[in-house]
């Protein structure tokens, strides 16, 4: 179903939520979505949540799963670690499509208008074909491809003045599907300048080794990004639900920086 169709019949947008649920970032994204739905700010419902971990793997994942269960949202789990063990520990690249097929079969009783990958750490080519899938990526179009850690280090290594995040359509090409919405923020000024001064003249490669992710500038950039990523995802879903964004990616990229910054400021 298209976003326009959802808007026309006034039905809430049905979202399938995919996550690995491995940390505070994933948990925060889910909480933000639930808060927006509860407040009426987002006309949507979570049709299901899929997690590629099971209870007992980590305490952080358990917290994520417990939140889903406490809200009576249909929860489907399949451990990618257990799946690989049951398939002779073959390289994941050879198991990826088999895992996706197993997930699709488990999700057959559920339906969704769109899917969201919010901290889902697996490349999922068949899932992207089965569902119209939106992915949150912690870099602007044309920027870093890959994990959020690399995106932050690229800002530091390249001495950038600005960074951001985007929501894009997931495709078989990792982080290269059509962008739907972006938000941008400065990594200069009062909030960041003292941290840049601390590393002036130092080799970024050395800093990456020690102190690594404990580097003050690294943590400041990551924290600023996290604050905005949650808002960007919610603002994008709101725009999809009212037909302002075509989730197929055929329209223009929407700059949601004003809406995101307003949320951060408040």
Q: Report the helical percentage.
A: 40-55%
CATH superfamily of the domain at 3-140 and 166-186 and 230-249: Formyl transferase, N-terminal domain
Mean pLDDT: 92
Shape: globular
According to CATH, what is the class of the domain at 3-140 and 166-186 and 230-249?
Alpha Beta
**Beta-strand percent range:** 15-25%
- What is the helix/strand order? HEHEHEHHEHEHEEHHHEH
Distance between the termini: 34 Å
Radius of gyration: 19 Å
> Spatial order of the strands in the main sheet?
3-2-1-4-5-6-7-8
Number of strands: 8
Question: What kind of assembly state do the chains in view correspond to?
Answer: single chain
Any overview of this molecule?
This protein is α/β, with parallel strands linked by helices and 266 residues long. The chain has a domain at 3-140 and 166-186 and 230-249: Rossmann fold (3-Layer(aba) Sandwich), CATH 3.40.50.170. It has eleven helices and eight strands. An eight-stranded mixed sheet has the order 3-2-1-4-5-6-7-8. It starts with a helix and ends with a helix.
Features:
single chain, 266 residues, alpha/beta, Rossmann fold, eight-stranded mixed β-sheet, 11 helices, 45% helix, 17% strand, globular, disordered N terminus
List the SSEs and their pairings.
Elements: H1 3-8, E1 13-19, H2 24-39, E2 44-51, H3 59-70, E3 75-77, H4 80-85, H5 92-106, E4 114-117, H6 125-130, E5 133-137, H7 148-158, E6 162-169, E7 179-186, H8 193-198, H9 204-209, H10 216-241, E8 254-255, H11 257-265
Helix pairs in contact: 2-10, 7-10, 10-11
């Amino acid at each position: 179903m298209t976003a326009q169709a959802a808007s026309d019949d006034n039905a809430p947008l049905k979202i399938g939520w995919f996550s690995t649920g491995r940390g505070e970032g994933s948990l925060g994204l889910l909480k933000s979505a639930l808060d927006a739905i509860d407040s009426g700010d987002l006309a949507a419902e979570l049709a299901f949540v899929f997690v590629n971990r099971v209870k007992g793997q980590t305490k952080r994942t358990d917290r994520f799963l417990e939140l889903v269960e406490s809200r009576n949202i249909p929860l489907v789990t399949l451990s990618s670690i257990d799946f690989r063990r049951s398939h002779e520990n073959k390289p994941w690249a050879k198991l990826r499509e088999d895992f996706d097929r197993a997930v699709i079969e488990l999700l057959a009783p559920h339906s969704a208008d769109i899917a969201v990958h919010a901290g889902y750490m697996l490349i999922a080519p068949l899932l992207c074909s089965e569902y119209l899938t939106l992915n949150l990526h912690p870099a602007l179009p044309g920027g870093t491809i890959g994990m959020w850690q690399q995106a932050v280090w690229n800002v530091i290594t390249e001495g950038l003045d600005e960074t951001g995040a985007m929501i894009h359509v997931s495709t078989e090409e990792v982080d290269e599907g059509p962008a739907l919405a972006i938000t941008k923020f400065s990594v200069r000024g009062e909030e960041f300048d003292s941290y840049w001064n601390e590393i002036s003249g130092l080799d970024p490669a050395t800093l990456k080794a020690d102190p690594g992710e404990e580097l003050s500038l690294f943590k400041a950039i990551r924290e600023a990004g996290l604050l905005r990523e949650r808002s960007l995802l919610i603002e994008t879903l709101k725009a999809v639900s009212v037909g302002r964004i075509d989730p197929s990616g055929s329209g223009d990229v929407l700059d949601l920086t004003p809406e995101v910054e307003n949320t951060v400021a408040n």
